[in-house]
Structure formats: C-alpha cells, structure tokens
Amino acid sequence: MRGDGRSIEGYFLPDLGTGLIAAITDQAGMELLRFKLSQGVTSIAIPSNHTLVSEFLKQNGFVPYRTLIRMTFGESVTWKPGAIFSRGSGYSG
Hints:
By secondary structure, the protein is an alpha+beta fold. The protein is built from 2 helices and 3 strands. It has helices at residues 26-38, 51-59; strands at 10-13, 20-23, 84-86.
C-alpha cells in the first residue's frame, strides 16, 4: 500500500500461511485488514497487545479465542507488535 506515492507503508501477503499483514502506519495496516476481512476471513491472529486491531475486531463481531506466548531462541530481537495487523502463521511472527 502506498501512502504518499513514494514509499510503501504496509503489505498483505495472502498466500503466506493465513495472510500476513504488516505496516508501519495504523492507517495502512487497518486498510489492509479491512480488505482481508472483505474476503470472507472468519479467523485472524494478532499480537495480544495490539489494542487497535483487537478493539476493531471486537466491534466487528470477532471474539477472543486464546492467547499464545511469543517464543524466541537465543538473544531477544527488537519486536514491534504494533506493526503486525494479521499474523501469517506460527512461523512468521
């Protein structure tokens, strides 16, 4: 998704697992999420502390199912859960 026509603010990879959405702006992430949901998606995984997406999903009839723990191996890496608007699957963040 292009914001100012010169940079990419987010992307949607529908064929990566369950469809990864990552974005550096809330506007781009939410627009891509709306598009994904318009395709008939009935289940979506997000980081548990991404309150913007969580509240949006609740307002649109989704209910929390379960919470998973993020696991890492080795040294911790910089993690920006606010950039993930839909997790692709267990192997992609």
